[in-house]
Amino acid sequence: MDDIFSSRAAQMEDALAEVAALAADSGMPEVTSGPILTSVAKRARMINMRWTKRRKQMTPPSGDKEAISHVVIDAQLKDVGLNLTDGQSVRLSIK
Question: What is the C-alpha separation between 10 and 14, in angstroms, rounded?
Answer without folding.
Answer: 6
